[in-house]
Amino acid sequence: MVLLTVATLANSLGSVSWSAAIAEVVPDRLAGRFYGRRNWVFGFWTLLVVLVVSWIVGRSGNSLTVFGWIFAAAGLARMTGLFYLTRMKFPPSVTTRAANPPDWSELATPLQDFNYLKLVAYIGVWGLLLNLGQPFYTVFLVQGLGRSMGEIGLLTALGGVGGLMTLKAWGWLCDRFGSKPVLYVASTLWALTGIASWTFAGERLFWHLAVGYLVVGATTAGFQLCQFQLMIKLSPANKAPYVAVFLALSSALTALGPLLGGMVLKVVPDVLGTFLGQTIRDYHVLILGSMIGCLTSVRLLDWVREERAEAPGAVWDSMRRMPELNPLLLLTGAAQTVLSPRAFLGLTRDSFRAVRRQVRVIGDVGGEIVEGTTEAIRSRITGNDP
């Protein structure tokens, strides 16, 4: 508990400072494509690690010792990020110590911005309702359905594939239509897919969850990208207090979800009957209630105001014409990615190229970003650099 508390505190400090700093570097009009590419690289390596670790855990019989080595290796690997952080160029506003120490009253400024608080309320409520059931997905699959960690790892990998295959499309949609309508669409698709997937999950029906994880992975990527962009966009020049308030309040609400979910599982009977020849468990009630709550909370986004944002209907129309978001192509591409070594090698090459491009952008023209001459780097960030 002590270690977790210290780690969470450090992560909170890092999240605020990183979000405020990177918002000073990336131009708003390129944010969707830039963050989409960044998240794509991150998602690919997450996917690769999940597959490898799932295989190792499965071969070890869920050994506690193996889990310990995995956690230790993960912690040490994350330390390598400090090397790249020291090579980035940030504007003086986020690297120079202020002449006067900040006033704690600055944290009250975001609390007076009602439009910003509406976004905080939506993300917090959504997180609370989602986390009613999400922490118990794996428990349900292992204890309720008797599934192996290898199978669960495969489902998790499919979620990562869904995010990888759609991140660039989400970034383009955010730049084209605004973050709020895309967030609305991603939230709705996420909740509907969750309801359809977990309603029929049981002893006889299991592998349809692969499609559910794939689609939820895609919508999760869009949700995370849009919520970050919208949060940054609604913040004024001094972003640090706004980012701090956003993370603090939304995290406080989100933290209540698992506690309430555990209380529900204690009250609801373990078995409630049968449906389509399958046992109805308390996990079904909890997860479906969580997803239905998420679906109804989407209406809270109507209260948030974003300049030059279009209606969600325009996003739906555009998505129907985008091959990256075509369900059939998404399923086909996911199968090729997971089952084909050649596809994985192709993704690895693309990932390395994207990393080199972003490092070159930060290292070579970071000073130009700071000075505001974004035209000089637009072609490089968008991938059109010869």
Report a brief summary of the structure.
The protein has a single domain (32-77, 112-339), classed as MFS general substrate transporter like domains (Growth Hormone, Chain: A). The protein is 75% helix and 2% strand.
Question: Topology of this structure?
Answer:
Layout: H1 2-25, H2 31-60, H3 64-78, H4 81-87, H5 92-95, H6 114-133, H7 137-144, H8 149-177, H9 179-199, H10 209-233, H11 239-267, E1 271-275, E2 278-281, H12 282-297, H13 312-320, H14 327-339, H15 341-371, H16 375-381
Antiparallel strand pairs: 1-2
Helix pairs in contact: 1-11, 2-8, 2-10, 2-15, 6-11, 6-12, 8-9, 8-10, 8-14, 9-10, 9-12, 9-13, 14-15, 15-16
Descriptive notes:
The longest helix is centred in the C-terminal third of the chain and has 31 residues, at 341-371. The protein has helices at residues 2-25, 31-60, 64-78, 81-87, 92-95, 114-133, 137-144, 149-177, 179-199, 209-233, 239-267, 282-297, 312-320, 327-339, 341-371, 375-381, and strands spanning 271-275, 278-281. It has a two-stranded antiparallel ribbon. It is mainly α. The chain contains 16 helices and 2 strands. 75% of the residues lie in helices and 2% in strands.
Could you name the key traits of this structure?
mainly alpha, 386 residues, two-stranded antiparallel sheet, Growth Hormone, Chain: A, 16 helices
